[in-house]
């Protein structure tokens, strides 16, 4: 029996479980020459998927109504008529939210369960790690001794960015939504300081204390008022990596806030939207580096693992309330 | 008799003539060894000076109360005890708003009145031309066939940016505040199209018609709602040069507007504050190129020349009502 999750209707504001539809098929899947049969092992849920649920022009086309949702998936090859893949292999790739599926193997990468836990290939050794590493390197251009602020710091990407920044010798300040998360940033991930945006009375003032030399790099996953507060603290030639804007993804009206332009002019500062897929030619080298750091124990990671295929939509929705620590993954 | 204009008090909102104080000194200026005596010929008034009248941290220190205002000036050497400068030379540099002054020559460049009108060294062959050329090149990275939108297009910098963009083969759309200015952009400066922001009912919709392939480069001199409208039209990998924000310089509250971050993420777009002085090592080459284009007739310019030292403050204030076409200069 094959279960699949389709986009039933597009969310207005916050996504809800009613935006998704579960369908079940009973017939056994048959593969043809060149194809493989996959059984899903882990499914990644990510904030950016919210954008694809809307019918708006963006860097990836929107999901279609009554078609499967797709995201990063780890799957096991259970039958193969494709020379590149053997039964028992594990692969990662953009795949349907489905318990089983047939693929020609295009866009799939084999992953090695002996080198790292399979789920890591969706996180620190997958798009998450690549986003953190390449966003920081390519736009942030970090230099030892500089100060970086990371919003959404306890999330999948943010927690990796902070650790890499520490490896590179930066002073690292994370912004997250609970004291427990702030503790984790400092004690597990080695951040120098953290701000709980839910209890802070004045993020701008707290930053001035924690970053007395100003902010050289801002790795932004959230947008909104937190990012406005950071603007008051940027240094000349600051670089701001706009990786996500989870605080506004569910807004039904266009979000407004401080005009950033005067801050950019005053500081000759840079703000750039970052999409990891633009840097595909750098993936192999970046994965190598991440794997090395992981092996050396310089890089660690946290996952929030939810069990059960039926819980995928709920896990996705929980992202917007910050219920995850680190990477949110559903184990099938 | 020497007349000087001091900063009397800092403007709240719009600058007024009462922010300035005229002082007169009767004693004859005497130069020492290494010094030159200068008589002011032309004074540049520029929107960025508004920032220096405030007491806020920025890329240049604020003007001090009861001290002379400074800006770009062309002056004649009327006496010299400095080997580098002879009586009769003309120089350009950052100098006091004063009819006469003594200098050691540091930071002054000789200008050649036989090669171009003296006032051009404050405009197209000075900071204005350098700002237009280097902002476009270094951040805009223009490619033939792309579409550029320029705000403040009839101003000193904007009108040069548009002409350079045409030389480089771009499709050029200017935004300015009167039909007369739009006519000038199209008929004198060769812009492909223009939008009068004072009469346009929907700048976003007009842009969609004039730039059906979207906007690759936005050269922004104004900020505010005009820039918000441009955001809806940017292409993937768009570059936005934030050169000025004249629409907000006189605001007493922090300006707000559309959150730019979601637009940047969606389009992998870049927004960068530009200050010409960061690119000083490229000045000689850039001036050479501008002078060549000027000589070849590919580049032209407009000036609004106001006569009389006493009119400097008024000329400066008029900038904020867009009373200038091209470079605003006061002839002494």
TrEMBL record, chains A, B:
Against InterPro entries, the record matches this protein to: ADH-like_C (IPR013149), ADH_N_2 (IPR041694), ER (IPR020843), GroES-like_sf (IPR011032), MDR_fam (IPR045010), NAD(P)-bd_dom_sf (IPR036291)
Pfam families from the UniProt entry: ADH_N_2, ADH_zinc_N
Q: Which UniProt keywords apply?
A: Oxidoreductase
**UniProt-listed CDD domains:** PGDH
Q: Which GO terms describe its molecular function?
A: oxidoreductase activity, acting on the CH-CH group of donors, NAD or NADP as acceptor
Q: What SMART domains does the database record attribute to this sequence?
A: PKS_ER (SM00829)
Show the stretches that span the lipid bilayer. Answer: none
Segments forming domain Enoyl reductase (ER) = 15-330
Q: Which PANTHER family match?
A: PROSTAGLANDIN REDUCTASE (PTHR43205), PROSTAGLANDIN REDUCTASE 1 (PTHR43205:SF7)
This chain belongs to the protein called NADP-dependent oxidoreductase
């Amino acid at each position: 029996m094959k279960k699949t999750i389709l986009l039933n209707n597009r969310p207005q504001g916050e996504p809800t479980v009613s935006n998704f539809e579960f369908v079940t098929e009973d017939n056994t899947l048959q593969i043809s020459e060149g194809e493989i049969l996959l059984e899903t092992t882990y499914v990644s849920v990510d904030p950016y998927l919210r954008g694809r649920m809307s019918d708006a022009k963006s860097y990836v086309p929107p999901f279609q109504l009554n078609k499967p949702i797709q995201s990063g998936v780890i799957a096991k090859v259970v039958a193969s008529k494709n020379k590149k893949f053997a039964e028992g292999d594990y692969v990662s790739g953009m795949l349907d939210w489905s318990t089983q599926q047939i693929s020609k193997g295009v866009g799939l990468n084999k992953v090695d369960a002996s080198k790292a836990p399979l789920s890591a290939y969706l996180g620190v050794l997958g798009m998450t790690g690549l986003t953190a590493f390449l966003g920081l390197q390519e736009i942030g251009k970090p230099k030892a001794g500089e100060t970086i602020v990371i919003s959404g710091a306890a999330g999948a990407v943010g927690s990796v960015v902070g650790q890499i920044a520490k490896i590179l010798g930066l002073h690292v300040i994370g912004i997250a939504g609970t004291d427990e998360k702030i503790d984790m940033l400092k004690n597990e991930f080695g951040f120098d300081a953290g701000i709980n945006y839910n209890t802070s009375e004045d993020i701008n003032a707290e930053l001035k204390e924690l970053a007395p030399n100003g902010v050289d790099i801002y790795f932004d996953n959230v947008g909104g008022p937190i990012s406005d507060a950071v603007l008051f603290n940027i240094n000349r030639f600051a670089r701001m990596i706009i990786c996500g804007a989870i605080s506004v993804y569910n807004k039904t009206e266009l979000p407004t806030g401080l005009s950033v332009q005067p801050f950019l002019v005053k500081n000759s500062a840079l703000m750039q939207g970052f999409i990891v897929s633009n840097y595909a030619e750098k993936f192999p080298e970046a994965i190598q580096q991440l794997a090395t750091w992981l092996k050396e124990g310089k890089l660690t990671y946290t996952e929030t693992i939810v069990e059960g295929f039926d819980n995928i939509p709920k896990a996705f929705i929980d992202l917007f309330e910050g219920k995850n620590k680190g990477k949110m993954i559903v184990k099938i």
